[in-house]
Amino acid sequence: MHLEREVEARGATVRNFGLVWVSGRSALELKIAQRSRDLWQGIAKLVPGIGFRQMGSFTLLRTHEEVAVAEEVMARSDADERGFALLEPGAVQRQNPALRGKFLAGLHCARDAAVESRVALPAMRLHLKTNGCYSFVAGREVRAIDTSSAGVSVRTDDGETYRGEAVVMCAGAAHGGLARELLGDFPVRRVRLQMMQTAALGEELTTAIADGDSLRYYPAFAGPALDALNATQLQEPTAAEHKMQLLCVQRLHGGLTIGDTHEYAEPFAFDVDEAPYRHLITTAEELLGRKLPPVVRRWAGVYSQCTDPDQIVYRRQAAPAVWVVTGPGGVG
C-alpha cells in the first residue's frame, strides 16, 4: 500500500535533474553511489519508461585552476572506478559535438547517468500494479501511526485506517507535523533551489554537463587543488550570492533542464529571483557556443539534506516496525 500526500509526487524527486551522479560523491560514498547507479540500470530493464540513459557527464573546465583540480582527481586510486578521463577540447567535442564553446578541458565521467525525473515515478507505479500486490492511494495525508502486537496501523486525514506489518514514512522536505512528532529534532536540513527548462535544443547533447563551479560543491573534488581554487578564483558575484553551480541535462523531448541555486537559511524566500537565471543562461551559452532555446519553465523546489556530510540518507526506526527515511537530496 502506497499512500501519497499529494495527488501526484510534486517534491524534489520531480523538480530536480534526474541525474545519477557517481562523479561527485566522496570516497566513503562511492560504493553506495555505484550501487545506486546499477540499481537504476536494473530497474530500467523492467521499466523502460523511466528513461534511464548511460550518458556520462562532462565537467567543463575553463581555467588552469579548475584543470588542476581535475588533474589531482585523475591521479587518485578511484579514478578508473569512477570512469574518469581528462580530455582536451577536441576530444570532448568528438564525444559531445554540441559542446562548441570555450573551455580548456573536460573531465569525463562514464559512470554518470540520468533518468526522466518527471515520469519515472508514474512509470514505476504502472509496473508495480501489474503484480496485483500494489495499490496507490493519492491525496491522503497520514495523521497517526500506531503499533501493536497485531502490526501497524496508519490513519489518514479522511478517517481511513490502513494496516500492515511495517511502515516506511518518506518524509521528504516536510520536517514538521508527523515527522517531528515521531522523531523530535533530527539532523536534516532543507535546501531551496531554482531551476529552469528550455524548449528543444534541436540537436543531441550526448552527455550531461557541469561547469567548474560544480567542483566546489561535490565532495569527490576536495583536496589541495580545490583549496587553491577557492583561495584564488572567486565565483562570479551572482553565483557566489546564490551558491550556484551549472548542471545541464537534456530531456528525452529535447529540452534542457538547467540549474541550480542553493538556499540554506530559513525562512526561504518565496520569490523566484531572475539574476540566477541570467547567470545560468550566460554560462550555458558560453559552454555550448550558441544561443539557448527559449526558456519555457522556471521553478523552485525544496529538498532534504543530511547535515552530516558523510551521511547520504537519514534512516531511523521511530517505533516498532516504523521507519522514517529522508535526507538524500542534492547527492544525485
TrEMBL record:
<dbReference type="InterPro" id="IPR036188">
    <property type="entry name" value="FAD/NAD-bd_sf"/>
</dbReference>
<keyword id="KW-0285">Flavoprotein</keyword>
<dbReference type="GO" id="GO:0005737">
    <property type="term" value="C:cytoplasm"/>
</dbReference>
<protein>
    <submittedName>
        <fullName>FAD dependent oxidoreductase family protein</fullName>
    </submittedName>
</protein>
<keyword id="KW-0560">Oxidoreductase</keyword>
<comment type="similarity">
    <text>Belongs to the DadA oxidoreductase family.</text>
</comment>
<dbReference type="Pfam" id="PF01266">
    <property type="entry name" value="DAO"/>
</dbReference>
<dbReference type="InterPro" id="IPR006076">
    <property type="entry name" value="FAD-dep_OxRdtase"/>
</dbReference>
<feature type="domain" description="FAD dependent oxidoreductase">
    <location>
        <begin position="3"/>
        <end position="332"/>
    </location>
</feature>
<dbReference type="GO" id="GO:0016491">
    <property type="term" value="F:oxidoreductase activity"/>
</dbReference>
